[in-house]
Design goal:
Largest sheet: 3 strands, mixed
Strand order of the largest sheet: 1-2-3
Number of strands: 6
Helix content: 55-70%
CATH class of the largest domain: Mainly Alpha
CATH topology of the largest domain: Na+/H+ antiporter like fold
Amino acid sequence: MTLAALNTGTLFTGLLLAAMALAAVVGGIAAQALRIPRVIGYLLAGAFVHLAAVAVVSANAAGGDAPESIPFAPGSIQHARELLKQVEHPLKIVKSLALGLILFSIGGVFDARWMRGAGRQLWRFSLLDAALTGGLVGVAVLVAATMGTTPVGAPILPLALLLGMAAIATAPAATLVTLREYDAKGPVTDMTLGVVGVSNVACIILFDLVFLGLASAGALGATDVNWKLALLGVLLTTVGSLVVGVGLALILSIAHSRLQPAETLLLAIAVLIGLWSGRGLLIEHFGVSFNFLLTALIAGAVFANVAVDPARFESAIAGTARPLFVVFFAMAGYQMRFDEVAHLGAIGVAYVTARGLGKWLAVRLAWRWAGSPAELRPDLGKGLMCQAAVLIGLADFVHAHWNDEWGSRTFVTTALGSVIVFELCGPILLKRLVVAAGEVKAITLLRGGGHGGVGADVARAIGSLIRTIGVGRGAGATNEPLRVRHIMRSNVKSLRADATFDEVLRFVEQSRFSQFPVVDEGDRLIGVIHFSDIREIIYDATLARLVTAADLCNASRPVAPIEMPLDEALRAFQKNDGNAMTVVDDTDSRRVLGIVEQRDLLRAMRH
């Protein structure tokens, strides 16, 4: 690879993207074999491509002439990285598009029905998460910097405040994709995504305000930031993000009602690319300033509340855009700098330790503040550890606008080094959280992921080929048939028999399922409430004040014993019009253990 070929950019950019995509496939297979989230495999694959690209460019550039804009010797690692930046730039649009779609999906959690039921809990979790995480990190960094060998007059307090605000954010991409990989579903999953969305908004706004406050007080030294204009810019950008996000959601909701989901997704991709690429033109010619990530999050939240059947569009994003997400993580891994971990120092260790402790402690206190709800977990903080894109963006901002060499360099080093730790450990902790919460089906863990993974796809393809040519017929049967316990979800709440009609409605608003088990004082199932059982009573105020959950439930609805084979469960679904059945330990004791959904059963039998 000659420097001339590299400088043309286009060819090498295409080869680089292809290499990352291929490496991600291999990394995903390896991660599945190791029973770890595939996100980690994608990240490490991207990091490997970066090392290989640096080695190739360094070897071919050695002894050549360095461009005047690159102040490093030809053949050095720094020189190779600077050259590679020239061909990496066109790939930023791919990364931004993927992140926009991911935040749009996370925004979908904030539908009005869920917010009415869990909104108060969400704000408690989010408030303590921001306050404790930011506070602990700020204090820890301040102590570490004070006790360490920092230069005289170093801006220790500004660094502590800025790192404290930066610690609040949780990576939306790694969190969402890990949850989708394991097909997690339930209140812990919803609350995790909700806190992730709020934490990123809080981080972006609070960081900007703290930076501007420090600049106005002269604590950042000589900066090129006019704090009055910048503060006005923050306010206008927040309002602009709200306006553009609402407008985007309305456009997509109209298109969603008239087009196929794939066509609506194509429209969304076109608009997101246009917004990201043309944000400068919008500011210059129309005076519209907005934050791309905040806009995508707001658009997703509004779309979830105004669109008809938004789940169809969400399914299109989850399926069609999945390869884009894989490449996104390979690109994120490509940008990870493992050598920065060695340079973390006392401040970096303090940041990593305090952030992990802050997330863990904040959620535990919020869980108690919310009344220790049984459907949530006190260790939900484990699901908030991932951190990458927002923190890296803040590091770029600090590097560009904070002219103090020590402060800027320390912030960037701490940010890039900690990303390695949290992006590799966070998905594993998140997986353990949702598995322990009972929101992941056993069959998903047995098959190494919610979609079976590339390895499973290859195995099925080979099996189909063998059956097609007539070899090994009947050999695909397993010794033990799959049973309901393999595909049920166990983190399911039940209604007490004496629950009032208002309590039933609040319960329905918080549930992601379409039927609701009712139990007696001994936690034994007495019947199941379906939407059809409460639909007419909503309009009869007198009757609504009199009935209880026991009056509303239907004792004749079928149930699924936990050891029921899937073929029997399928026949049970065929005999009734429901799309879910309550799972009990056996038909005699009728102790509720979870819920099995018909779509999960069909998916398991198809594979």
